[in-house]
Amino acid sequence: MGKKSLKQKMIDYIFTVSKQPVRYKDLLSANALYNEGMHVDPAKLNFRMSITRAYLVYAIICACVLIPMILLVHLMPHINNHIPIVGVIFATSCVFISFNYFTEWLRDGITLRLIKEAWLMHFPYFPYDKYNKRIEELYHEIRKKELPRKDWEQYVLDGLLK
Fold it and tell me: In whole angstroms, what is the distance from residue 139 CA to residue 80 CA?
């Protein structure tokens, strides 16, 4: 398995993933939602986020960025006192606003990873990158035709083999 990226290490630390496999209908729904740029319900992909761990990781990242900036400002001689005050206001707002972006970025990362893992189980002969849009189309057709869930798998496989 090669080296994990920093993002993957953060995801592994912040999120808890169930050992339960992702159900077929949940995979189809999650794939369609993800392709449309929507957020997938964590219960469909069997994961949850530890907000405490997310805050801890985010605080470490903020400290790594802000401490050098603070040192730089303190080492500058003859600086107007108003500039650091405005800088602190700006930095504080950036810290609070960007936490949501940070959690969304990680959540999108784990969502894609879990979709691809479930994909290997349900569609082992159809690569995700090549077939995810086609299966999304088939899923929308299934929903439009109101097919019973027991027929979904056969409908999708027939649609892929056409």
Answer: 61
Per-residue pLDDT at 1 exceeds 60 = no
Alpha-helical regions (H) of the chain: 6-14, 24-35, 42-45, 51-75, 82-122, 128-145, 152-161
What whole-number distance in Å separates Cα of residue 73 and Cα of residue 55?
A: 26
**46-56, pLDDT tens digit by residue?**
999 999 999 99
DSSP 5: P
As beta bridge partners, residue 47 has 17
Distance separating alpha carbons of residues 96 and 158, to the nearest angstrom: 49
- Per-residue tokens: 64: 């790594």
Cα separations in angstroms, 5 against 1, 10, 137: 12, 9, 32
Residues 50 and 21: beta-carbon distance below 8 Å: no
Residues 68, 103: Cα–Cα separation, whole Å: 24
* Token pair 């600086």: residue: 79
Q: How far apart are CA 66 and CA 68, in angstroms?
A: 6
User: For residue 44, what are its two tokens?
Assistant: 């469909």
